[in-house]
Amino acid sequence: EIVLTQSPATLSLSPGERATLSCRASQSVSTYLAWYQQKPGQAPRLLIYDASNRATGIPARFSGSGSGTDFTLTISSLEPEDFAVYYCQHRKGFGPGTKVDFK
Amino acid sequence: EVQLVESGGNLVQPGGSLRLSCAASGFSFTNYWMSWVRQAPGKGLEWVANIKGDESASYQVDSVKGRFSISRDNTKNSLYLQMNSLRAEDTAIYYCTRVRDSNDVSDYWGQGTLVTVSS
Questions:
Q1: Do residues B81 and B70 touch, judged by C-beta distance below 8 A?
Q2: For chain B, N or C: smaller number of CB within 10 Å?
Q3: Which chain A positions have a beta carbon within 8 Å of B5's beta carbon?
């Protein structure tokens, strides 16, 4: 079973700053990794699939990179609506999430 | 527009049963795997089960095997989750999702339905 870990658990930033979120797999997952955003009281929303492909309608400030065991979600310049929890996923497993909150 | 609307969540006693439904619209339902993903209060996401478009295959997470059953009715564009022998740890919001590819990536999610297992 592949285990996903995410770091940091919480990231405190201000609007306009760059956010870098990490997801690490316990063994290689090639590029089969997705990222989701979840805001309070809402369902998750797909941001990135296959490590680096933006889903339909996702702004260009969101980008994904990585392969093998180490992956990164980058938000180039945080907008107020980006403060949320972010989950990575490989197949039937999810990471524990990273919360991006206001500094 | 793709829409997924869950229903059926409720308060149920331990050992009880519940059937969740998900009405899908805006896409060719039979062409997609569908899944259920749950989220316990204040916790992360947990994949629960999925089912192939033609109903020829389905899978469940180990913790629900023998208790939960996923099914679909392609004539009604509907997905179901039959939950038996419910436990307190099954308390969660249950999301219906459309699966976009063979890697279980969910590209559309419903708003969720809350299942509470408590006496």
A1: yes
A2: N
A3: none
CA distance A64 to A68: 13
Cβ(B106)–Cβ(B112) under 8 Å? no
Series of mean pLDDT values for 10-residue runs along chain A (103 residues):
97 97 98 98 98 98 98 98 98 97 91
B69-89 residue pLDDT tens: 999 999 999 999 999 999 999
User: Which of A46, A47, A53, A58 is best to mutate for the B interface (most B CBs within 10 A)?
Assistant: A46
Q: Where are the alpha helices (DSSP H) in B23-88?
A: none
Q: For a pLDDT cut of 70, what percent of chain B falls above it?
A: 100
> What are the helix (H) ranges across chain A?
none
Q: Do A94 and B106 touch (CB under 8 A)?
A: no
Contact B103 A91 (CB under 8 A): yes
A44–chain B Cβ distance below 8 A for any pair: yes
Token couple for A10: 């919480």
The stretch B99-118 carries a mean pLDDT of 96
Integer Rg of chain A from CA:
13
β pairing state of A85-90 and A34-38 = antiparallel
Backbone angles phi, psi at A84, to 5 degrees: -170, -175
3-state class (DSSP) for residue B110: coil
